[in-house]
Amino acid sequence: MGTLKRNILEYFYGEKKVDLVSAIASYIKDIGPSQEATFWKLYLKSALDEKYHDRLRGLFNSLHDFVKKNVVDYGFEIEARGKSFKSTLEKKMKVQSEKKSLDTIKDFVGFRIVIYSGKSEIEQIYDAHRLAKICVDFFEGQGYIPCKADDVKETDGFDKNKCSIDIPEKEKVEEILGDYYGFFKNYNLTPKANGYQAIHVIFKDDEGRYIELQIRTLEQDARAENDSCEEEKSVNVDVEDEYLDAGHDEYKKKYKKIFIDYDRVNLIGFIKTGKKIKDVVGFTKALLIYHRTRKK
User: pLDDT (tens digit, 9 = 90+) per residue, 126-154?
Assistant: First the structure.
């Protein structure tokens, strides 16, 4: 066992360049057998494993063709991504602060489907539920097991009077999803405080890896990218650029336990110039695995 540094971030600081996978692997080796080691091992073999990503591209193309065959009245785009190290660390810290187990985190790899049409927003939301149901059939046909979802509890801070969004009728959603209702984490029925809406479902493969499928309307996707339900906020803010300054009070308030000193990061495939970051390895930005669009 090597010399354990203060925390995992220390494995990315130093004069010698390191690659992301090797740095995390070194940390796993140094901390020894533990739930945290198991957590980071699963992250490596899911979000950052290129051989696994090759397999996922085949699954992705099959999903695209399946949706294209079964959907005729709206367009869609599908994206697959590996969760960034930064986002994973933030979520790990949040889960630990809530005294929850790390094995509740299962979204290291995500498939996202965004649908759009000329229908009203509420009708598109119902279409998203219909699509979600048949996607469960698709993944089961590929050998994946859908995981039972926790109910989404009422979100603190969400005010429907300040956030003008469409919320579907629960009875109609239950009717559409039928026996599959319990597999979905449904933020359409219970939006997050910032107005975030989507349908989430987790699938597990025979090697213990997970894929999270998210389905959103185009309007919902725009709100998610802007992190706001305010209509006037139409420009996507690059979080990494906004929070690079070590003196940023909001960053410290939200992420003070895991503040990253970007000036000390010395990773292969990661470059910081002034307040701009170029990241092709998945350190601060999600690692794109594949993307396809089918217009109506």
Answer: 999 999 999 999 999 999 999 998 766 66
- Cα 49 from Cα 29, distance rounded (Å): 18
266, with CB counted inside 10 A (0-12, 13-18, 19+), is middle
Amino acid at 4: L
Chain segment 87-130, per-residue pLDDT in tens: 999 999 989 888 999 999 999 999 999 999 999 999 999 999 99
**221 close to 114: Cβ distance less than 8 angstroms:** yes
Q: How far apart are the first and last CA of the chain?
A: 56
Residue 267 DSSP one-character state: B
Amino acid at 3: T
Where do the domains of the chain lie? Answer: 8-294
Angle between helices 170-177 and 121-141 (to 10 degrees): 30
Class of domain 8-294 (CATH, top level): alpha beta
Q: What is the pTM of this model?
A: 0.85
Torsion angle of C-alpha atoms 152, 290, 41, 184, degrees rounded to 10: 20
